[in-house]
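hey so i finally got around to running both of the ones u sent me last week. sorry it took forever, my laptop kept dying halfway thru and i had to restart like 3 times lol. anyway pasting them below in the order u listed, first the sequence line then the structure token line for each. didnt double check formatting much so if smth looks off just lmk and ill redo it

first one:
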Amino acid sequence: MANDGSDDDEQAPYPVGYRKPPPEHRFKPGETGNPRGRPKKSRNLNTLLEAELDRPVFIKEHGRHLRIAKREAIVKRLVTDAINGDHRTLALLLKAGRVTPQPEPIDFDIGSDADLEAYLQRALAARRKEALDEPVEADAEEAPPDVDVSE
């Protein structure tokens, strides 16, 4: 006979087996299976640097004590050094200004002049409708009286 961990003298009140642990190994009421919780995610260099640059530092400026972020204090120091004639700092600031991403210019590709004219007529008709609170139909063939479409 196979030994399943139970004695013949002792009769278990329920079968012990797969997904049925013995009572002494079950979670007690109010207890969790993961008491310490999920481990915190390890932080990489960028997150550590961001956290440190966001921490406050106290500085004295114009006789006043200020509490500012470390990144702001660094920028203030760089600008002050550049103004005082430090050429390396000035070059660094100018380079950083060029590296800062500028917004891309928006390219409005409306298409042909006929498409543009039709769009403008619809827009003007919608404006008139809003202003007069009346439905105004835009005629695709005729231009609005205040728009010169001659070439």
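and the second one:
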Amino acid sequence: MTDPRRVIAKRAENLEPAKPYVRGWADAKRGTEALAEQLRAAGLGSDFLGLKADVSVFGDGLVCLGPVRPAAVELFAKMLATGLATEMAEHAGLSSAVEPPDAPAA
């Protein structure tokens, strides 16, 4: 039971030697560590205590967030939106600062 991107694949609890799960788990571990570092820098490290690397039976790395408070997820989503808006503005050549999504316009 998986979606086309194999994100909802079964967990790899009975790993087979022929599967490339080590590479997938290593990718997930790097992604998990990078995300954890950024969450700690933003003061959200204690809200994502279930953050961990995992791997599917297909060898695809998965980053599991675990249970998270709704307020922490809302702040995380706003941070992502602000970062994406800033990146898009930089690519568009805009020099003005990008305001957070809920900030009042000047």
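quick thing i noticed on the 2nd:
The first helix runs from residue 21 to 41.
anyway thats it, ttyl
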